[in-house]
Write a sequence for this structure.
């Protein structure tokens, strides 16, 4: 049976436009809350102070500063990351499935929208790196236009591969394709910064053609509904998660990681009703995004601290990792907020929130300790590293206090 | 003797002064199984939400184990176990961790938890799935997890909304056996279900709801009498006579 066609030329591309508009309407109130929370002012302040700070850092930069260690991963990340919002929904498996032969227009619209957004982000990343590159290379620097063309070529290759990946039937092949895409991004970024635009374009074209040929040879599914819907859910969850740093987001969901070994640690918690919320939130923290981000940010900051023996840069890297993890951890209390079980359990009403705040504080203090040790090992005098740990502990306490104040305000408002 | 659940003159709903439930009164005694039956939209789920304390009555009183929610929230909540119609599980927890959490919440000691959890997982054939996350389970398996968590507690009162939904025949059999054994121990049940032929075999009394009001109540004989049917008629026939004989009653 053919899918019904509305009079007036209903197309799947029009449906995509309707859905993007609906998504914007759905998140608009959250952005309004974000701006009201003072985050807009903070971002503006950060942007205003980032310019002079960047200029100052460039002036302090020694001539032999290994800028490639920053320029290559940053550009490679901008090239590699190629999310495509399809706005597909679970119900589409029933209602849009009959229209599968006409879904090309829908997916084309999704890809075009994502490509434009990512090209703009790439331009911003390249623009941000450009002063660093100019400072390091001086008169030997390539023209910006050439670098932009090479970066866009790399982006096009990575984007094409990312769009084709969900169609691969085997998970191992999808993993391999993503890994090869990362190699493509790193290779072209290195070729561009090290040897110039021609080398960058050549690397992008060569790697891209090889990757696309591989993808074409592997077994594919015409339209992988289940995977596209799961991907869309994950991306929407990430978006909501970001918003949850600043405001309450009831739709908050996201990916759950198994992390069985870490999960087993919770069995050490005492077997009493008082420990139940702690047990729940400890498992939630370990298996949700906040812990993943804390791990990634600590690992990235740790590598930076150990390889870059510039004290200011080391402390800034540690502080950034801690701030990012802190923002994520403070959103922990948002999980299960709308679960009726927490209301039905015979527990004190504020016990779940207290447990979430306690886990966030312990995790941040632990991360602070680890970063302080890494700073010490990275050459920072140990008393200074100790001071950094004290700063981290104070930050954890301040976040806990802010959460407690928010809780009191909410309880007062009922 | 004190009823384990008493609903007295309950008026309540989603909009103030527009109650979905009107003047509903019934009790569930110790060791009794009561069936809450009615058509879609009759007010069964709204009644259950009021009993759980998820909704506040506009008028009337609900007592569980002799106390209202406002008098002693701890005793009220620890006296009842609930199984919802749609399984609601934490995505971050495995099946075993759900049981672990429930045991902690209700203050069950570790040894008793281990014994009960093993027994329940064997009964519902879920041992192999103990380490699985809820996202990877079928709807029937998720429902089994809800049931295992409820029966882990051994609560005085069980409120179960559509217990058989999604369960396979063996799961239904296990649940019925479990309910019968808990009933023998003195536990009470309030069961909302559309599978009248099954609950007819197990329930002691029934509350028939129609458009938020009690259309009939009592034992099967009482219901039949109120429906104008002879003693010995089935619950299905009595129910059809009470609420289904009017509009839209046939093809």
């Amino acid at each position: 049976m053919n899918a019904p066609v509305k009079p007036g030329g209903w197309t799947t591309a029009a449906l995509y436009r309707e859905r993007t508009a609906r998504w914007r309407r759905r998140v608009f109130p959250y952005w309004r809350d974000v701006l009201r929370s003072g985050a807009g002012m903070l971002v503006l302040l950060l942007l205003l102070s980032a310019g002079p700070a960047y200029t100052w850092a460039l002036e302090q930069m020694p001539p032999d500063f290994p800028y490639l260690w920053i320029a290559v991963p940053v550009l490679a990340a901008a090239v590699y990351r190629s999310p495509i919002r399809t706005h597909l929904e679970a119900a589409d498996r029933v209602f849009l499935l009959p229209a599968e032969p006409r879904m090309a227009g829908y997916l084309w619209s999704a890809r075009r929208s994502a490509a434009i957004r990512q090209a703009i982000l790439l331009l911003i990343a390249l623009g941000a790196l450009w002063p660093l590159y100019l400072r390091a290379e001086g008169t030997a620097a390539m023209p910006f236009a050439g670098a932009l063309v090479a970066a866009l070529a790399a982006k096009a290759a990575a984007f094409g591969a990312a769009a084709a990946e969900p169609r691969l039937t085997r998970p191992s092949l999808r993993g391999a394709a993503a890994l090869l895409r990362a190699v493509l991004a790193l290779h072209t970024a290195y070729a561009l910064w090290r040897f110039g635009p021609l080398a960058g374009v050549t690397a992008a074209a060569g790697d891209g053609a090889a990757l696309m040929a591989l993808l074409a040879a592997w077994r594919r599914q015409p339209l992988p509904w289940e995977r596209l819907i799961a991907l869309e859910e994950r991306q929407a969850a990430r978006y909501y998660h970001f918003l949850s740093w600043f405001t309450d987001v009831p739709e908050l969901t996201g990916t759950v990681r198994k992390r069985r070994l870490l999960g087993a640690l919770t069995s050490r918690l005492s077997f009493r009703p008082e420990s139940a919320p702690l047990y729940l939130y400890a498992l939630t923290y370990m298996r949700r995004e906040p812990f993943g981000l804390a791990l990634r940010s600590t690992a990235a900051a740790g590598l930076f601290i150990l390889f870059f023996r510039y004290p200011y840069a080391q402390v800034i890297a540690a502080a950034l990792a801690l701030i990012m993890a802190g923002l994520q951890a403070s959103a922990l209390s948002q999980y299960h907020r709308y679960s009726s079980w927490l209301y039905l359990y015979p527990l004190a009403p504020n016990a779940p929130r207290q447990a979430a705040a306690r886990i966030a504080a312990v995790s941040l203090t632990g991360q602070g300790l680890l970063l302080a040790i890494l700073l010490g090992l990275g050459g920072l005098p140990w008393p200074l590293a100790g001071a950094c740990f004290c700063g981290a502990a104070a930050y954890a306490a301040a976040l806990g206090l802010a959460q407690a104040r928010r809780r009191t305000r909410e309880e007062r408002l009922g | 003797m004190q009823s384990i659940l008493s609903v007295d003159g309950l008026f309540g709903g989603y909009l103030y002064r527009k109650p979905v439930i009107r003047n509903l009164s019934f009790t569930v005694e110790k060791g009794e199984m009561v069936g809450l039956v009615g058509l879609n939209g009759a007010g069964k789920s709204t009644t259950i939400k009021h009993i759980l304390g998820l909704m506040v009555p506009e008028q009337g009183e609900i007592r569980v184990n002799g106390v209202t929610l406002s008098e002693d929230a701890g005793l009220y909540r620890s006296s009842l176990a609930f199984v919802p119609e749609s399984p609601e599980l934490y995505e971050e927890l495995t099946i075993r961790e759900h049981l672990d959490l429930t045991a902690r919440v209700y203050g069950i000691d570790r040894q008793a938890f281990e014994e009960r959890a093993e027994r329940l997982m064997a009964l519902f054939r879920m041992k192999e799935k103990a380490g699985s996350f809820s996202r990877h389970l079928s709807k029937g398996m998720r429902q089994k997890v809800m049931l295992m968590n409820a029966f882990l507690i051994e609560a005085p009162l069980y409120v179960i909304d559509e217990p058989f939904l999604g369960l396979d025949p063996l799961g239904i059999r296990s649940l019925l056996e479990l309910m019968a054994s808990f009933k023998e121990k003195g536990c009470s049940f309030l069961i909302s279900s559309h599978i009248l032929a099954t609950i007819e075999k197990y329930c002691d009394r029934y509350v028939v709801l129609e458009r938020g009001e009690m259309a009939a109540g009592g034992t099967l004989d009482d219901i039949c009498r109120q429906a104008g049917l002879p003693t010995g008629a089935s619950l299905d026939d009595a129910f059809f006579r009470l609420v289904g004989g009017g509009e839209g009653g046939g093809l």
Remarks:
- The longest helix of chain B spans residues 169-185.
- The domain at 1-79+155-251 of chain B is CATH 3.40.50.300 (Rossmann fold).
- The beta strands of chain B are 5-12, 21-28, 33-38, 59-64, 80-83, 157-161, 188-192, 205-210, 213-218.
